[in-house]
Every structure is written in C-alpha cells, then in structure tokens.
Amino acid sequence: MKKIAVIGAGAWGSALAIHLANNGNDVTIYSHEDDVISELQRKRKNSRYFPNHLFPKQLAAKSIKDFDPSIDYLLNVVPTQYVRDFYTNNIDLKNISVINCSKGIEIKSLKTLSSVFIDELGVDPHNYAVLTGPSHAEEVVEKKPTTVVCASYDLDNANSIQKIFSNNHFRAYTSNDIRACEIGGALKNVIAIASGIVDGLNMGDNTKAALMTRGLAEITRLGVAYGADENSFAGLSGLGDLIVTCYSGFSRNRKVGELLAKGISLSEINDTYEFVAEGVPTSKAVIALAATVNVEMPISNEINEILFNNKSPYDAVKDLMTRSFTSE
Q1: Which 3 state secondary structure label does DSSP give 172?
Q2: Which of 17, 86, 96, 193 satisfies CB 3.0 to 4.6 Å to 257 for a cystine?
Q3: CB under 8 Å, gap of 24 or more: what pairs does 107-111 form?
Q4: From the CB of residue 4, how many other CB atoms can be counted at a distance below 10 Å?
C-alpha cells in the first residue's frame, strides 16, 4: 500500500483516485473548489462527472490548503497551462515523487511538463514520471480493460509505479522515453480537434484515416527532433492515444472540432462549455515549438489558423489537399 495524493478533482483525477484506492492504496484527492470537496466528503461522489460511482471508503478528500506532504507519490492532474503557477503558490515539490497525468505544452515557455517540473519546480529527475495512453476516465471508472504507459528516467521508479496501477482491468507498461510520451500525449489532442472537424463536416472514413496517418507522421517528426525514439510513437502514447482521442465520444478535443465544423467560434465554445480541451492551447504552442527545430506541421498549422485566425474548416482542408507534391 502506498500513500498517494491526487491533485485535481476533475474527471481524470477522480477516476485515477478511485482506481488507486480500489487497488488498496491510501489515497487523498485534493481540490481548490470547496463545493467539490464538500460533496466528496458528504456524499462520497463527484456528481459533476460520475454521479453513479461512489468513492471507496479508503479515499479521502481535502482542500489543497490542507495538503499533507508525507506521501509516497503525488499525481498531477492540474491542466498544463496552470501547473507552474499552481505549484509555485501551493506545494513545494522538491522532495516529492511526481507522476504527471496531464498532457500539453506550456505556451509561455514552450516546455513540456517534465521540463517545468524538473527545471522550474525542483523535482528530482529520478522522482519524476509521466502516465499516459488511451485511457478515457469514463471507461476507467467502469473498469473496462485499459492499458497505459509509465515513463521515467529511472526505470526502477517506472517499475514501482507500474505495480501500483496495474490489476486485472488496468495494465501499465514501462518506458524511459519521457519525451515521446509527452509529445505524443500533447499533440494527439491537436489532431483530435481536426478529427472532430472531419466528423462534423461528414467527410468520411477515407479522410479520417488520412488525417490520423499524416497526423501521426507530424507528431513523430517533432518528437524525433526533440530527442524521442521514433519507434515509441507506434505505442500507447502515440498511435494508441491518437486513435482513442480521434474516435471517442468522450474526447473533449474531438468535440471542439465538431463544434467548429458547425460554425461555432472558439470564443462561443469557451463561453458555453465548461470542459478543458488541452489541444486548443497546445495547437498554439506546437507551431512555435516546431519553428525552433524547422519541422513542418501542416495539420497543426491549419488547426491553429481555424482556432485563432477564423479560417474556414473547408478552406483548411482544401489547403492541405493542394500542398506541394511530396513522397510519404
């Protein structure tokens, strides 16, 4: 049994907390929202996301103001763009083992979260890991078979985390390719927005297959340019996560794409829907990141144009289809 803090009581944080508690660990989920903590303590459920799932008895809920640092692991589920400020203002991470479960690239620094946690927030590289893969929260709480990958610079750390998470319906693999896991996990959300546009415009299976294939190609190009192993992108953090995010009805990024295809602007989406779609800020960051290593990202570029420069989805598709001829 391990003592684990889950920081963030959204859908993914709640699902992971439930899963780890059911695995016999001593788990506390922390939130800055007093109403969420109150409901978790009184009713033992998070009705916003999982109204039909009670929290296990061994799962506690507390305000972030009452954070207890005497833990074995901290699971970060704070959205990427808020990570730096949140921990700077709330938790000293220097002696804490962190498992990052958020995906994205920080816009203001163009850093992946391993760099933010290690270089900026003082986490020991041997105490850092990333958990990623095709794992929608809604299916994890239903105990549907799920596989993920846990990557760490220290494989002993990854192996320990693998044992904490794994059971007969949730299987964790290990890796030391943190860069591939981060790039794959971040950029698949951008391609998922494009996938939602394809679905919203009823463009069909040929288009979607082409989008995902070429999307994986540009994800891999950028990852390799930043030191990742090309083969890693054929795994769970690359191809696996891309498939589930592009096809699933649970995908918030895919939903954004569908809404854009219907002519709804990003500002209207932000005003109407409460969910966080990490692919939106990531699409802006990835263009700048790719420019630093001279990597072409045509799909990501078109999504950025649609989101922030009011480009028509139809025009974006036309421009992709009429690019200069090249080999695969």
Answers
A1: strand
A2: 193
A3: 107/81, 107/281, 107/284, 107/285, 110/285, 110/288, 110/289, 110/292
A4: 24
Q: How large is the C-alpha radius of gyration of the chain?
A: 19
86-115 mean pLDDT: 96
- Angstrom CA distances, 217 to 66, 106, 190, 221, stand at 45, 22, 13, 6
Report, as residue numbers or ranges, the catalytic residues: 188
Separation CA 116–CA 114 (nearest Å): 5
Q: Would the CA dihedral through 258, 249, 238, 73 be positive or negative?
A: positive
**Cα dihedral value 322, 226, 189, 28, nearest 10:** 180
Strand partners, 59: 27
Task: Find the Cα–Cα–Cα–Cα dihedral 123, 127, 132, 138, rounded to 10°.
Answer: -90
Instruction: Say what the pLDDT of residue 326 is.
Output: 85
> Averaged over 179-184, what is the pLDDT?
97
Q: Are 213 and 280 in contact (CB under 8 A)?
A: no
User: How far is the C-alpha of 112 from the C-alpha of 286, rounded, in Å?
Assistant: 10
What is the 8-class DSSP label of residue 131? Answer: E
Residue 226 is encoded by which pair of tokens?
A: 């930043």
Quick check: 254 and 199 in contact, CB under 8 A?
A: yes
**How far apart are the two ends of the chain, measured CA to CA in Å?**
49
Do 22 and 56 form a contact (C-beta atoms < 8 A)?
yes
61's enclosing H/E stretch is strand 59-63
Q: Which residue has the tokens 């920080």?
A: 106
| Largest pairwise CA distance in the chain | 62
Is the separation of the CB atoms in 187 and 132 below 8 Å?
A: no
Structure token digits, residue 10: 């959204």
